């Protein structure tokens, strides 16, 4: 699951995708993630080499060539592949969370077996407001539904309501080398900023919880953006490591079915950019933790606030508007946002806007944002006013998720040699 910023940016693979308005053309399987073959001894010998690549990576990049899994590895067409994803409940859900993750779930739920959860356990890795966590969790669930998540197609639940997440994390922690976690880029960055005395163990180990979130549901695919690629690498390595240490004949001798304990998930890569950038800095990702609220459009911002933020957002002094000019990051970002909320193609936006000045375009963009977000805001208010309905949705989602998670957890306990319950 997953998906990045101090408080909210660690959302599980949270902040994962940006889809075009056409049907999704995802291509699962980063070639670098397919390093481990079926030979277990080969897989084990590659752990050290692959692990070192995590520590030496200076940046994450999703512009890697991708290939489809072999046809023989695909499940029968009648069986949907499973996807899990989620967002942290800290802070306000903003346009980056929506366009980068939640909006794309709407398309995914029609094609895949989907589980979308509110990752509240990840929200406590850094200091947080205990008085707001519960309310923010409910509000985040309401936003999921308001954006179009259909509970007849997808399970929506709260992470902490499925206790198997924490149990599996502990079991995986016993197999996760400390060196792997020390090399995680986000941990190094955030611990450096916070200082050792203010950093809890959870900040170091939350990638193991993230792996648990994914592996618990035998996920086939994980929506992954640029800043979450390293976490998925760790998840895949942990799955391979546990399969090697405890699966196969070892598990069968303990009464299990043998074979792999976990599916090794593949990345679900977007066909285009995976990030929505800040309104005040086109080189920085839109973030809940940014000091200025001016840097982001929150999903629940009023019309006047949206218009004001767009009017004041950073632009440049070039003539005309264009995509993909590295010297114009703000221009590319704002055009991309307009493309996504207007439902137009990149070529249509290019032809419409290439000769516009910034004043004219900002009015166009603000109007498109208000029009796109208004129905979501209306539906959100309806949902949060019906607490019984929301409680029912979350309880049903947790029940469905638990029925899947418990099977995986029991298999892990058995394969690791625990006395059967």
UniProtKB/TrEMBL annotation:
Pfam families: tRNA-synt_1b (PF00579). The gene is LOC111480280. Its EC number is 6.1.1.2. GO terms for cellular component: chloroplast; mitochondrion. It comes from the Eukaryota. Keywords: Aminoacyl-tRNA synthetase, ATP-binding, Ligase, Nucleotide-binding, Protein biosynthesis. It catalyses: tRNA(Trp) + L-tryptophan + ATP = L-tryptophyl-tRNA(Trp) + AMP + diphosphate + H(+). One of its GO terms (molecular function) is ATP binding. One of its GO terms (biological process) is reproductive structure development. HAMAP family: Trp_tRNA_synth_B. It is found in: Mitochondrion. Belongs to the class-I aminoacyl-tRNA synthetase family. This is tryptophan--tRNA ligase.
